[in-house]
């Protein structure tokens, strides 16, 4: 029987580090087994995201087989290990807020998720974390071993997956409101521990994503101008107002991320279909699980819902079922809030009403669109290695224009149609709620 040799590993790539240092350390410290004396029988590690799924951190699926030295009992453990990308340039590490991303996720697992144990909110188990600068690590359970899976493709989810997602989100927001209302001191303490991981600096004109988002905003508005049916139904004045409003999308996102009372709540911060897993229970009802808590923040709940709807739902489902989708979210939110606060729905303050949340959604849908404008094309036509490709560019790099030009046509008419639909939704919401995009 061969066991992994953990000595003299020398300079290692991430897979070697996981196999030669990290997993043996976890075993020695009793993190992976309840047995006192175990040896590593085998360890396999493979990189995730090579199918083009966008990931800022490097993730590895690790399968470990353990053997009890005295008992002879064999155990199999499947993990997902998140690492800071090796040899990441300083400007990317600091500009990408990697230290804050990992710190937020650690805070979420240690301080926030334990508060949600009374709810049926599922999330991976955290075995270990380390916040050593530029060498951050989080070790999680591999939820695929329990029947959970990410929808493929990650764009245009099915209606049952959309409803499961928004119900989960509503429950998460509602229970967070419940803590805010019933234990404000605890809630304030949690807020103070969260680090803002995006929109915390004015990078206008310098950051690659900033440039890409700015250039991408006009793809949807120009597509409407070029499509007779939509051109005749959406006034040019509205398109001009939207373009002017989003001429600096990062600035708009930064402003809208600021918490405004009374609706500010704990938000996932990156509630997209590639951060949601699904599973059918015994009655064939679809359940949803959220993961990747690195961008958890205190902001409007619509930071999550508008981003999810703009990036993870398609017009063919969203258009005929929007009322069902939004209603399912709000119903679950109110239910969780009432349970935690021990109140009936008619006793809740008016700012928790359906109409008020719809107005908030109308205000934040441009936020969701500003993200979708550059991100949805990549979801439809994944890059082989997004982080590696982004490293090759700077604001002065002559290849940047080529990269942006390529992104502006990714997905073709399929993506154009999605963008036109989102803008049409914004227009009708403005008419319905009176929330103008200006």
TrEMBL record:
Residue spans crossing the bilayer: none
InterPro entries, per database record: CHK_kinase-like, EcKL, Kinase-like_dom_sf
Coiled-coil features, chain-numbered ranges: none
Domain CHK kinase-like, chain residue ranges per copy: 138-339
Entries under PANTHER family matching the protein: JUVENILE HORMONE-INDUCIBLE PROTEIN 26, PROTEIN KINASE-LIKE DOMAIN-CONTAINING
Protein name: Putative juvenile hormone-inducible protein
């Amino acid at each position: 029987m061969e066991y992994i040799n953990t000595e003299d590993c020398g300079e290692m790539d991430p897979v070697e580090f996981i196999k030669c240092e990290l997993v043996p350390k976890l075993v020695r410290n009793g993190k992976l087994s309840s047995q006192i004396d175990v040896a590593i029988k085998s360890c396999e590690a493979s990189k995730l995201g090579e199918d083009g799924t966008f990931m800022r951190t490097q993730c590895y699926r690790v399968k470990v087989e353990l053997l009890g030295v005295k008992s002879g009992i064999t155990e199999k453990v499947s993990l997902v290990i998140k690492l800071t990308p090796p040899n990441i340039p300083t400007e990317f590490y600091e500009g990408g807020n990697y230290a804050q991303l990992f710190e937020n996720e650690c805070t979420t697992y240690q301080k926030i998720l334990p508060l949600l144990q009374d709810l049926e909110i599922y999330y991976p188990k955290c075995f270990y974390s380390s916040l050593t600068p530029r060498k951050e690590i989080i070790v999680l359970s591999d939820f695929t071993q329990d029947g959970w899976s990410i929808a493929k493709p990650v764009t245009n989810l099915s209606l049952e997956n959309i409803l499961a997602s928004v119900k989960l989100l509503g429950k998460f927001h509602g229970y967070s409101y419940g803590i805010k209302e019933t234990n404000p001191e605890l809630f304030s303490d949690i807020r103070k521990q969260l680090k803002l991981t995006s929109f915390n600096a004015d990078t206008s004109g310098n950051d690659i994503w900033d440039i890409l988002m700015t250039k991408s905003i006009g793809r949807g508005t120009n597509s409407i101008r070029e499509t007779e049916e939509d051109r005749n139904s959406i006034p040019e004045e509205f398109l001009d107002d939207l373009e002017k409003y989003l001429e600096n999308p990062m600035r708009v996102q930064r402003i809208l991320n600021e918490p405004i009372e009374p609706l500010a709540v704990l938000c996932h911060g990156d509630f997209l279909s590639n951060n949601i897993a699904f599973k059918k229970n015994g009655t064939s009802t679809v359940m949803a699980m959220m993961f990747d808590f690195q961008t958890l923040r205190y902001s409007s709940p619509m930071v999550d819902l508008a981003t999810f709807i703009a990036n993870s739902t398609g017009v063919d489902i969203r258009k005929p079922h929007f009322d069902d989708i939004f209603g399912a979210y709000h119903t679950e939110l109110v239910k969780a809030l009432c349970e935690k606060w021990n109140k009936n729905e008619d006793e809740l303050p008016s700012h928790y009403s359906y109409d008020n949340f719809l107005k908030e959604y109308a205000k934040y849908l441009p936020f969701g669109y500003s993200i979708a404008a550059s991100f949805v094309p990549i979801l439809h036509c994944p890059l082989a290695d997004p982080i590696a490709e982004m490293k090759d560019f700077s604001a002065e790099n002559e290849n940047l224009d080529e990269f942006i030009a390529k992104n502006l046509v990714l997905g073709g008419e399929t993506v154009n149609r999605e963008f036109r639909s989102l803008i049409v939704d914004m227009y009708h919401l403005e008419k319905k709620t009176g929330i103008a995009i200006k």
